[in-house]
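DEN5B protein
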Amino acid sequence: VAGENFDQSPIRRTFKSKVLAHYPQNIEWNPFDQDAVNMLCMPKGLSFRTQADNRDPQLHSFIITREDGSRTYGFVLTFYEEVTSKQICTAMQTLYQMHNAEQYSSVCASSSCSMDSLASSIDEGDATSLGKLQRYNSYDISRDTLYVSKCICLITPLPFMQACKKFLIQLYKAVTSQQPPPLPLESYIHNILYEVPLPPPGRSLKFYGVYEPIICQRPGPNELPLSDYPLREVFELLGLENLVQVFTCVLLEMQILLYSQ
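Predicted structure tokens:
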């Protein structure tokens, strides 16, 4: 478990994650920082879900800034895949049994009951809450399907968010589709890494992803820097009044700190 969150149910806890594979293995001028990428891809750690939980894929981005001020941009698609290891499923059920036993003990303690007469000492309200606890806060290996979070990440020299988002979604569809794409997955990854060039300043580039073409545009020398992030999301997250206040602070050259979960 990554972090002290034992009070939460096992499904709501976070666990230590790791990088399963990355390609290319290393670049001389841009070494792969495994710990940093791991932390930025899964800032809260590995998480589990069941068939009753929402498992829609989520996309987020991050920036790695080096000592010389150079930046590298990462775009991450997090999704959930079924756990096929019986050992992990059994361990999750054991964690739930331990967790519910602790909750049971705390309910009894609040009722001032003795260990010899647990059932007779719990009042009706506690019994009801305990029943809800066992019904909604449980994992049954024979009844429930366990899922675990997984990420695919694309690291780029420029923040082509929309292009990377479309490519990752198409790659995810190829991974999860029952009918495989025309070419092996390695072909599409090799293509975007080695065969798709960086568009020259002021030009657009159209290349093919897995299923559909993708277009990215790079601003010219006299244009504003590339900002491929949708402004609509900023308005939705901050609201109009907060965004005007932030913009005012920028114009006044004030220090700004945005904090979120």
